[in-house]
């Protein structure tokens, strides 16, 4: 069996581990556009913060490809999939034959067309290790940085570089930060926290024109800057599958086995859409844990196993300067709210199940809530009043607790 | 493979497991040196309410969501035991987001800590099990 994987990040690694859990013999070829050993993309902000380095941020050990008997083509881009011939064509003109193919091409930063952006001396996106290294090279203690986008990527970038620059201004069209994971009150808490650290926010605003080191904003303001970071969002890399005739919406369409509409072609990770069980909708859930689990599911199925990726939920753990935020699911239904000086909690429930939650500050044991969402645990089967107060196993019946704590062993 | 089994019927709620855990992971040679005037941050935690109590630590799940979700590749399963590489951990809390037992938590240094069945410290076998006065926590061989 010949397996080919396009991509070298979480979904690709999940796929390799999934394949090897079943098939130790088949050949695996990894085609990677980047020149790096597999590394963790979300760690690039921690790299700039000094909490990791290019060695430690490797997603798997140096021996990983060898241990798993993989051929790796680094610095090579896949340019075409030929589904009839079952081949992948690379940018150096090679054709790689596959029996089973995984497309794990990830996403690319979206760069909006802004007049005069090419006249700015230092413009960066913040997605890859090369992006982070290039940005760092341009920064000095005197740098005035504009970050366009107050979402997850933009604000993690802010955390990573704040200590090495003079000033950071975050500009976003939305009227609040992190709208993808927080409600309005939660956004305010995070914004206040970052403002206390010295970050400036211009919300409900945007850059209409750039001329050299001047940015002209929608509200008429003109800002002088040295560096511009574009973090307005990402676009799934769907072109390879679309051009090969596969079904694509916003992301590559996949079924629960992670198959695309092209026979023997699978897809996983940020380039795909998956089925979100919290809102019964197909959507792009571009999150590392999901990418890994999708990739693993694809790999198991590619190797002849049988696994479904059927527990996908949006979920996020993120932190800024020691303030931790954990959220999951959708914010739909009745809301239980508890706010103290150092913590903020909202639980959303409907139709006897927990639909979503937001925790800021005190995030201890949040996974107990996440499991309620993932498993669609009927709330009348647990002590919901107790678990509302804090996540705890005491809220389950003693029989269920014994099963959970003891791997099903009868005592 | 060996697993820590918790039987709440026998748990006295004495919290000794928490103290043994803190001692085992302190790198000190006596319990007094390890625990005197220290607020402990153990990897095993006792829940208690209305006369019921039980200890919770890592279950080393067969489908270990923390390992699959770790964004840093810091968590891995070695010989059936979920291990953490603290050099790689950046303290992002994704493992806290996904652990259904609430059994992983930050250490004093900000990176995560969890029960590794005392394989990573000098004890070599779970000290909580050894120290439990009523055998409410046991180490048993289980088939995965």
For the structure shown, list the relevant keywords.
heterodimer, A: 411 residues, alpha/beta, FAD/NAD(P)-binding domain, Enolase-like, domain 1, five-stranded parallel β-sheet, 11 helices, 27% strand, B: 144 residues, alpha+beta, Alpha-Beta Plaits, 2 domains, two-stranded antiparallel sheet, 20% helix
Could you walk me through the main structural features you see in this protein, from its secondary elements to its overall organization?
Chain A is α/β, with parallel strands linked by helices and 411 residues long. Chain A has eleven helices and 25 strands. In chain A, the strands form seven sheets. Chain A has a five-stranded parallel sheet. A five-stranded parallel sheet of chain A has the order 9-16-10-11-12, with helices on one face. A five-stranded antiparallel sheet of chain A has the order 21-22-25-24-23. In chain A, helix 1 runs parallel beside helix 8. The mean pLDDT of chain A is 97. By secondary structure, chain B is an alpha+beta fold. Chain B folds into two domains: 80 residues, Alpha-Beta Plaits (2-Layer Sandwich), CATH 3.30.70.20; 55 residues, Alpha-Beta Plaits, CATH 3.30.70.20. Chain B contains five helices and eight strands. In chain B, strands 1-8 form a two-stranded antiparallel ribbon. A two-stranded antiparallel ribbon of chain B has the order 2-3. In chain B, strands 4-5 form a two-stranded antiparallel ribbon. The radius of gyration of chain B is 15 Å and the shape is globular. The N and C termini of chain B lie close together (7 Å). At the A-B interface, helix 8, strand 21, strand 22, helix 9 and helix 11 of A face strand 1, strand 2, strand 3, helix 3 and helix 4 of B.
Q: How many domain regions of chain A? A: 3
Quaternary organisation:
heterodimer
| Low-confidence region ranges of chain B | none
Query: Could you name the CATH homologous superfamily of the largest domain in chain A?
Result: FAD/NAD(P)-binding domain
SSE string of chain B, helices as H and strands as E: EHHEEHEEHEEHE
Q: What is the rounded distance between the termini of chain A?
A: 45 Å
CATH C-level class of the largest domain in chain A is Alpha Beta
Q: How much is the radius of gyration of chain A in Å?
A: 23 Å
Choose one word for the global shape of chain A: globular
CATH fold call of the largest domain in chain B: Alpha-Beta Plaits
Predict the CATH topology of the largest domain in chain A: FAD/NAD(P)-binding domain
CA radius of gyration of chain B is 15 Å
Distance between the termini of chain B: 7 Å
Number of strands of chain A: 25
- Going across the biggest sheet of chain B, name each strand in turn: 1-8
């Amino acid at each position: 069996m010949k397996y080919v994987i396009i991509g070298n990040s979480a979904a690709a690694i999940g796929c390799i581990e999934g394949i090897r859990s079943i098939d130790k013999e088949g050949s695996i070829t990894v085609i990677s556009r980047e020149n790096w050993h597999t590394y963790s993309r979300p760690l690039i902000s921690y790299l700039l913060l000094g909490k990791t380095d290019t060695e430690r941020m490797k997603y798997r050990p140096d021996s990983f490809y060898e241990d798993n008997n993989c051929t790796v083509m680094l610095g090579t881009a896949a340019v075409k999939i030929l589904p009839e011939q079952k081949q992948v064509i690379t940018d150096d003109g090679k054709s790689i034959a596959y029996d089973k193919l995984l497309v794990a091409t990830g996403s690319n930063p979206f760069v909006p067309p802004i007049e005069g952006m090419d006249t700015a001396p230092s413009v960066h996106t913040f997605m890859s290790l090369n992006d982070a290294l290039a940005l760092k090279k341009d920064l000095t203690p005197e740098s005035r940085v504009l970050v366009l986008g107050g979402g997850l990527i933009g604000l993690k970038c802010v955390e990573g570089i704040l200590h090495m620059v003079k000033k950071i201004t975050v500009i976003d069209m939305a009227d609040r930060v992190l709208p993808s994971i927080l409600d309005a009150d939660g956004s305010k808490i995070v914004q206040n926290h970052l403002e206390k650290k010295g970050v400036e926010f211009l919300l409900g605003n945007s850059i209409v024109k750039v001329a050299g080191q001047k940015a002209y904003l929608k509200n008429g303001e003109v800002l002088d800057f040295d560096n511009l970071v574009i973090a307005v969002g990402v676009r799934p890399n769907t072109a390879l599958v679309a051009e090969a005739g596969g079904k694509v919406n916003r992301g590559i369409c996949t079924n629960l086995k992670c198959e695309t509409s092209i026979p023997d072609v699978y897809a996983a990770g940020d380039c795909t859409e998956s089925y979100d069980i919290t809102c019964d909708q197909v959507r792009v859930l571009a999150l590392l844990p999901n990418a890994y689990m999708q990739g693993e599911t694809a790999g198991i199925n590619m190797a002849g196993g049988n696994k479904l990726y059927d527990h996908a939920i949006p979920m996020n753990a993120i932190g800024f300067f020691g303030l931790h935020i954990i959220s999951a699911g959708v914010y739909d239904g009745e809301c239980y709210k508890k706010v103290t000086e150092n913590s903020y909690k909202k639980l959303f429930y409907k139709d006897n199940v927990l639909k979503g939650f937001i925790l800021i500050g005190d995030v201890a044991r949040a996974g107990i809530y996440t499991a309620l969402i993932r498993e669609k645990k009927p709330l009348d089967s647990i002590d919901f009043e107790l678990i509302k107060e804090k996540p705890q196993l005491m809220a389950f019946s003693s029989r269920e607790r014994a099963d959970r704590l003891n791997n099903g062993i009868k005592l | 493979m060996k697993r820590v089994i918790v039987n709440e019927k026998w748990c006295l709620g004495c919290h000794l497991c928490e103290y043994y855990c803190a001692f085992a992971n302190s790198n000190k040679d006596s319990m007094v040196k390890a625990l005197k005037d220290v607020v402990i941050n153990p990897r095993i935690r006792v829940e208690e309410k209305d006369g019921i109590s039980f200890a919770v630590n890592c279950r080393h799940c067969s489908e270990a969501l923390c390992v699959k979700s770790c964004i840093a590749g810091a968590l891995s399963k070695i010989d059936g035991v979920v291990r953490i590489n603290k050099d790689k951990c950046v303290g992002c809390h994704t493992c806290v987001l996904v652990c259904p037992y609430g059994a992983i938590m930050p250490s004093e240094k900000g990176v995560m800590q969890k029960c590794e069945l005392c394989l990573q410290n000098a004890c070599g076998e779970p000290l909580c099990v050894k120290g439990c006065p009523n055998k409410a926590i046991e180490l048993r061989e289980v088939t995965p």
